[in-house]
Amino acid sequence: MNEAKQKSLTINGRAAEAAPEETLLGVARRCGVAIPTLCDHKAILPYGACRLCVVEVAWGKRSKLVVSCVYQPSEGDVVETDSPRVRQTRRIILELLLARCPGVAQLAALAKEYGAWHPRQALPEGEARNERCILCGLCVRVCKEAIGQSAIGYANRGGRRAIASPLGVASERCIGCRACVHVCPTGALHAEDAGGVRLMRELRTPLALTRCRACGAPFAAAKQLAGLRGRTAVPVETLETCPDCRRALTGRRAKTGVLTNAACETRGTGSCQKS
Fold first, then answer.
1. Pair 223, 248 in one domain
2. Which of 9, 14, 52, 260 could serve as a FRET partner for 144 with CA atoms 20 to 30 Å apart?
């Protein structure tokens, strides 16, 4: 079987090569060409939700706009990432996003760059339930595809579309891992730890926190740790130790050369001294 060949193309007048199944966004980044994105994340398969990564691809006198995070280049593609047509399209997209999320810093910076000073039409009062959420879907997809929980999803339609837990009540599937919070590009989701409880605010879901075996401070949702116990070979005492204490303990062991039996078993070595 013949190996798939590299595809030759040009990006902004520069020659480039695309590997089989590589996206145009990936090629551009590898070549040092900046393309704005809001819904792209390395932990999630490309989705093309925000459309900001749109670029222009030409063949002779014909051209079309494509979403670069999902488009796989063809041999001979001539790509422009900042043409007037591309800039106009990005400006319109930003104006629509600003109508829903007028106070998001990331959008404001992009709006200044592309001249999208004002939203095309503000949403009616009360329709933007979370004015920081651009509905990119990263939180929904990371929870389903990477974590395997599907604890968060879409609710309602039109101007009232929002991210929420199923039926808008506390989610039984949420494990409090905060993956949704970390991937959100605009800071629309929040997790608050207080009094031994982690509240996933937008999911209306409180979760009990486990206390660190070493220092006693609450640090991780008990449901998250329970799930990890069945999916990893990491010793329980390591899972139930907070990151700060774990780093301190690892540092002390590195200096003394002393490991616990559990650590040796994890590394597949022989017997150990007791620490």
1. no
2. 52
